[in-house]
Amino acid sequence: MKAIIQRVTRATVTVGGEEISSIGRGLCVLLGISAEDTQKEVDYIVRKVLNLRVFEDEQGRAWSQSVMDREFEVLCVSQFTLQCVLKGNKPDFHLAMPAELAQPFYNGIMENMRSAYKPELIKDGKFGAIMEVHIQNDGPVTIELNSPSGPTDPRQLSKQEKQQQRKEKTRSKGPSESGRDKGTLRSRQDPCASSGAEGDVSSEREP
Fold first, then answer.
1. Do residues 183 and 189 lie in contact, with contact meaning Cβ atoms separated by under 8 Å?
2. What is the dihedral of CA 116, 58, 133, 207, to 10 degrees?
3. pLDDT digits 0-9 by tens, 33-71
């Protein structure tokens, strides 16, 4: 799944000359659903959209708060053209989920987003309609988001699972004897040596 996320001061959707959705300050999200998408991709995109820190906080610090922190609105618009592949100069959309499957899938995304946030603050367009989307970008701030894609080959999946199991076993055992010996030797050679761990502190938080 692909999403183009824009921080906006206002966004509206018009169909046939009639405005059907509008939001004030918040996010406008264009969603491109792939034929390969599953609930895993839905969970990822919904979580990222709602937790993406693109707003300032009350003290004016940029990139500090999410749309949920500020209780802003979200306008989602289905956009199958995000799954475009060019064949020469002609767009090809075979990667997009077929419309008869994409519509209930898109409705499920909206349900997930509304259940994770305040339902009244989640707006959307009209699936399958010819829409005019008016976006007043704030910044401008535009972020492209792609759900992570994993291997579909069972042998590759099995290999990844084994690698993950080995990593977990290594963590549970703690640092190796050889690693402790090296650290002891280094401290004896240079009493002022430091691992640097004290300064390796990140303020980033993964939602």
1. no
2. -40
3. 999 999 999 999 999 999 999 999 999 999 999 999 999
